[in-house]
UniProtKB/TrEMBL annotation:
PANTHER family: ACYLPYRUVASE, FLUTATHIONE S-TRANSFERASE
Originating species: Halocynthiibacter halioticoli
GO-annotated molecular function: acetylpyruvate hydrolase activity; metal ion binding
Source taxonomy: Bacteria, Pseudomonadati, Pseudomonadota, Alphaproteobacteria, Rhodobacterales
Protein's UniProt name: Fumarylacetoacetate hydrolase family protein
Source domain of life: Bacteria
Length: 229
């Protein structure tokens, strides 16, 4: 065993439905504006864009039931997503082989400091300050493909305090899961432990402390997260 000059960072481990074993996280990729109606509500024409991705940090993923409202912002938005968790990877993965690399799927939230993201966009700067802050990616337990099959359709919904905010069907994604995996693998060496957040339907909006968010999909159940101070 190697001697370390500092303690090794803690490995991020996610719960998996039906087992006590954990899923170790390596990287987190997030696709932007992958539902046409959301792209329009954000002021973009989805027919004119190739796919684009940004990253969150592995330790931004959290399976806690509470989301601490982050500092230096007055406009934190929810974005309901499906997470794709990889069991293997590679480079130059063909689309027709891409799903063979998927371990399972989970419900997730891409929480966003929208005011800081907007300022970064305006200045032509990276988005991390708006996207990759602590606790910014609440995620539910992973459902193995062996249990659910591949998630290519079905209603993805998010409510806040019981009121419907976001609703779309997974089949409305502009770039489907095999396309995302293949595209990413042409620019990065994908690997087991990588997580891909697949975009959000229309209806993103602000939350405040004491709000309860609930994201759901028929194959993946519910994920409830309460905003706290």
């Amino acid at each position: 065993m190697e001697d370390l000059v500092i303690a090794a960072p803690e490995q991020v481990l996610l719960d998996v439905v039906g087992t006590h074993a954990k899923f170790p996280v390596r990287r987190v990729y997030c696709i932007g504006r992958n539902y046409a109606a959301h792209a329009v509500e954000m002021g973009h024409d989805p027919t004119k864009e190739p796919p684009f991705f940004f990253q969150k940090n592995p330790n931004n993923l959290t399976q806690a039931s509470e989301f601490p409202y982050p500092p230096h912002t007055n406009d934190v938005h929810h974005e309901a997503e499906i997470a794709v968790c990889l069991a293997s990877g590679g480079e130059g993965i063909p689309e027709d082989d891409a799903l063979n690399h998927v371990f399972g799927y989970a419900l997730a939230l891409d929480m966003t400091r929208r005011d800081l993201q907007g300022a970064a966009k305006k200045a032509g700067r990276p988005w991390e300050i708006g996207k990759a802050f602590e606790h910014s990616a609440p995620i539910g337990p992973i459902h193995p493909v062996a249990q659910t099959g591949h998630i290519s359709s079905g209603p993805l919904k998010l409510t806040v305090n019981g009121a419907l905010r976001q609703e779309g069907d997974v089949n409305q994604m502009i770039w489907k899961v095999p396309q995302m995996i293949s595209y990413l693998s042409n620019y990065f060496a994908l690997s087991a432990g990588d997580v891909i957040l697949t975009g959000t339907p229309e209806g993103v909006g602000a939350v405040v402390p004491q709000d309860e968010m609930c994201i759901s999909h028929p194959a993946l159940g519910e994920l409830k997260v309460t905003v706290i101070t």
